């Protein structure tokens, strides 16, 4: 009989009555419960609870009975106020268009709702409106319509349900201010074409707009989206709307781009949605309506009217940077992008584009001047920035095909004496007999190596380089130097100001990315030449291109990305200043502890690499010919000299660590690839390579285990037998395969060409 009773109880539980979705949300908010708290209690995901409250999904046993019990207890504590109608009636009211919604859907006649943002700008086109300075007399804050009302008080929900939006504010500040709802929304649509916006902290908003122009109007007038500027002379971040496949269909956009559209990177100008925007007096930037799009109206009186779009199904979120983010549920994607926006900045394109954008956001090119005789302020150059105008590189710094090289013969190949070639390491050698007698190959990977190299880097600013013949080398002067470093003997160098004898054949040269010793004069960035002096050798440059106006332009950029990286690692359970053994244990499986935060971590790392790479963006697309300009050259941030300085410092930092370890222990790397070095060892872990003592100290100036940028983590371990087989299989014509390329997984997928 008891089995029958259990079966009956289970049957009843499977149909446990639940209030309508809006009432479920009201009850949770009335008790000040967050989506995370409810999800944790019921052992489900936050997105699942959000789906129950939006009506997109319904709970199933066994969670349904527990959820019904929770709501029943809350209903006794917070009964619906009298005279407000049944929950079903309130839901019907909520779905009815309000005057605000009608205005948003009316198109171009409705005002965008933006207010003055600045008179002190950046000198950009309307696609990137002017920046602001708080000192500017003309500066005012953006205006937005009255926000959707939310409440923690019992009985207040009936009023909120009669607005066009609903919101929860877990993990965010109470409603208030121009950007009370955070930097972005992920938009999704149900079968009835009702659009829901998912924001940071569990925020959920009803989106009344039925067309893309109306959506832009609503975003600027009512959504209260955006982010405060990162610098007083900068500009606030535009609101970002991320459209799921269902949202694309709702607004008349294709779920996927056709092959021709994908190659073009945008929808054709004749597409119906593009025409809708034109009729509503909205404009698109030169990149058009593509995976990342900016929709704007020209700034008037310093007022910004811009909205950013991100369409994951159009490959906006590259797997190399964002992993599986494009396949996340809307609420989960909002969490990932929201954390990135809060710690880095609101994305404006790929991580590379965003990394470059962050440089300018943290170090704006202009500021507001002091008041003139009439009390007006004007835009002026901001010291320490790159300015508003592009600067031509020195000929040796220019990539092949640059206009400053147009005088060269068409098929001329520049050698080291004509071209600056500062790149990351790709060096490897054969194993020695002693190394073949060991059991393991251990990879050590430097955290955020290019970020650490950017920290403290002195670079040229807004002035063009100056050519000097027969200069005296100055390590404090950024620039490019033609100098012969072939006399630097890697077998006898200064280590910590003391001369040491080493086996130079087992170390890469610090002066070339291939690790080969230079054979004559070549162009080098200042950090490379300074390292030759540090090693104890005199240098005599033949000529140089130097920059007297200089500064640490990237310091703020590094600090923000460093903090983002460390905070995200902490979310994954890896804290700073852990003892070596504890750090290695914490790193094991850390990405599985929170896969969403692992996505953020990868995006932060790619923001660093991509941002540095964008400083020397090459020509792309058909039709370009050597000697012609290309769009990237119009940016003040197109600065190959800054990129060269950072990469030079990264390579030198790597060599210095290897040199100190070799001098102290006699251990030499067998392969180096960018920020990863491989060593032969008797044991399988980093502690079998690095000589930590009982107090947790190791060789000064060498590799140190830890989470901070510049410190190292375990990249991977393979057997020496594996390494010997790879070297034999891939080695040809004197080429030595780089084991650092495969040390992480051990998988060798193709012939190693060194590319």
Description:
This protein is α+β, with helices and mostly antiparallel strands. Helices cover about 30% and strands about 10% of the residues. The protein is built from 24 helices and 22 strands. It has a 7-stranded mixed sheet with strand order 3-2-1-4-7-6-5. Strands 10-20-21-11-22 form a 5-stranded antiparallel sheet. Strands 13-18-14-17 form a 4-stranded antiparallel sheet. Strand 2 and strand 3 (about 205) form a beta hairpin. Helix 19 runs antiparallel to helix 22. It starts with a helix and ends in a 25-residue tail after the last helix. The model is unreliable at about 85-175 (pLDDT under 50).
Topology:
Elements: H1 2-14, H2 21-30, H3 35-42, H4 46-54, H5 63-77, H6 87-94, H7 99-105, H8 157-161, E1 184-189, E2 195-198, E3 204-207, H9 212-221, E4 240-243, H10 245-250, H11 259-264, H12 272-279, E5 283-284, E6 292-296, E7 306-310, H13 319-322, H14 330-343, H15 351-362, E8 366-368, E9 379-381, E10 426-428, H16 433-436, E11 440-446, H17 449-454, E12 459-460, E13 466-469, E14 479-484, E15 492-495, E16 498-501, E17 521-525, H18 526-534, E18 543-546, E19 550-551, H19 555-571, H20 580-587, H21 590-593, H22 595-614, H23 640-665, E20 671-673, E21 676-681, E22 712-719, H24 720-730
Parallel strand pairs: 1-4, 4-7
Antiparallel strand pairs: 1-2, 2-3, 5-6, 6-7, 8-9, 10-20, 11-21, 11-22, 12-19, 13-18, 14-17, 14-18, 15-16, 20-21
Helix pairs in contact: 3-4, 7-9, 14-22, 15-22, 18-23, 19-22
